[in-house]
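To fix ideas, we now present one chain and its tokenised fold:
***
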Amino acid sequence: MQLCGKLVARLGGRRVDAELPGRQGRLAFAYLALNRHRVVTRGTLIDALWPNDQPALVDTALSALLSKLRKTLGPEALDGRAEVRLVLPDKPWVDVEAALEGIHRAEGAVGRGAWADAWGPARVALHIVRRGFLASESAPWIEAQRRVNEDIELRALECIAESSLELGPNELDSALRSGHDLVRAAPHRESGYRLLMRALAAEGNDAEALGVYERLRVRLREDLGAAPSRPTQDLHRRLLA
């Protein structure tokens, strides 16, 4: 089940995404898949599908939509009436869940110093979230999931950069790319600057690494009236030395 990028859903080996009942059917399916570990009340589902302008007979519209979904997915896949839950086969693969699992595994490996074990799961998480969550749609729950995905992206880049630095020269390009991506995506996130500075220093470009520190120092001063933190200043002093 793919919710990031193009919506793709297979149930029992059968592609069902093309059979979902229109835009509202796709949104309802995505919302129920995202919240498949809990029951969803009709009121909550109405707010998710019609956050601004609800139809006059909204409860009737929801009933009709759920009926069409049951016909497409099969009655066993959609459980409940007043409270609805999407029932999937054992051990389903849902991309947003895989991304979250991947970043947890990667961060755990980084914490243990198991650098080779961190690289793959972090890449999986990064690949998933970069596809974009329901890119053409807008609703509070969609924006909330996008913020989750943005956080996963930053954490995955940090894991990739950190593990790549520790894995040695063959992965230095990956550390540099991840460091640059971090600085662009989160210009006030000091950990990204530190990783980029370390990667540049490992490449032998100490002066460029010092330039990265200067960019951070100026940005923090102008945007926030703040100075770099102690770990960042310590790294700067080591580069100077």
Observations:
- The mean pLDDT is 94.
